[in-house]
Structures are given as structure tokens and as C-alpha cells.
């Protein structure tokens, strides 16, 4: 997220800023396979209990990728902030494959500091 640093918020307003222009909705879908070794390591966690650091890292990575894509889209449209960010996780599985998916959407805006 550091390459194009803009404000990203789940709220519809930004304290200390005024929205001067609503530009467009920005959205993305990121899908990432878990991989056979990740699945194997996660199955051990399932058997013995505890948290799956492997899957947590993968989910964190696709979340960061989604935010980066939203930032790229918003800045290409002239925005300096994204408000109303919503993210939804899902799983795609079948035929011996498992993939994680995140869909993210927000509103690209131009803001000015008060």
C-alpha cells in the first residue's frame, strides 16, 4: 500500500477532511490458490486445533493485494482517498482445489484537509 499512499477508510466520512468530489466506485476481486502444502499444513491445525498461520498469511496477502488494486484504480482516476471500503471473503473449492477470494469495493473521492 505504500506505493501510492492515499487515505483508505471503511467510514463514509473522514474526520478532519472534506470530500470535495465523489469520483467513482472502485472494485476488485482477488483470487489466490492455497496450494497443496498449505492445505496439508492447515489440515494438521484442523486435527490438533489452533489457528492456521498459513491460511491467515494467505488471507492477509490477498487483502493487501485487493487494497493495492483499489488504490491503483482510484489514483488513476484522480482520487486521493477511498471511503466506504467493504471487503468480503469467500472460498472457491472443487476438483481437489481450494482457493480464497476477496471482493472489495469503495468510493474514490477527492478530499481536502480542513
Task: Write up what this structure looks like.
Strands 1-3-4-2 form a four-stranded mixed sheet, with helices on one face. The protein has 114 residues and is of the alpha+beta class. The protein is elongated, with a radius of gyration of 17 Å. The protein has one domain (7-113): Translation Initiation Factor IF3 (2-Layer Sandwich). A hairpin with a 2-residue loop joins strand 3 (81-94) and strand 4. The chain has helices at residues 36-48, 53-76, and strands at 7-8, 17-33, 81-94, 97-113.
Which characteristics define this entry?
114 residues; alpha+beta; Translation Initiation Factor IF3; 2 helices; 4 strands
Summarize the helices and strands and which ones pair or pack.
Elements (H helix, E strand, L loop, with lengths): L6 E2 L8 E17 L2 H13 L4 H24 L4 E14 L2 E17 L1
Parallel strand pairs: 1-3
Antiparallel strand pairs: 2-4, 3-4
Amino acid at each position: 500500500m505504500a506505493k501510492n499512499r492515499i487515505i483508505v477508510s471503511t467510514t463514509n466520512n473522514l474526520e478532519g477532511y472534506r470530500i470535495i468530489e465523489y469520483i467513482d466506485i472502485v472494485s476488485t476481486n482477488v483470487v489466490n490458490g492455497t496450494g497443496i502444502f498449505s492445505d496439508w499444513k492447515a489440515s494438521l491445525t484442523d486435527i490438533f486445533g489452533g489457528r492456521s498461520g498459513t491460511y491467515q498469511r494467505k488471507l492477509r496477502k490477498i487483502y493487501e493485494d485487493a487494497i493495492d488494486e483499489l488504490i491503483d484504480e482510484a489514483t488513476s482516476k484522480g482520487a486521493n482517498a477511498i471511503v466506504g471500503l467493504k471487503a468480503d471473503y469467500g472460498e472457491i473449492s472443487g476438483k481437489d482445489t481450494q482457493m480464497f477470494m476477496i471482493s472489495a469495493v469503495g468510493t474514490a473521492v477527492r478530499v481536502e484537509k480542513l
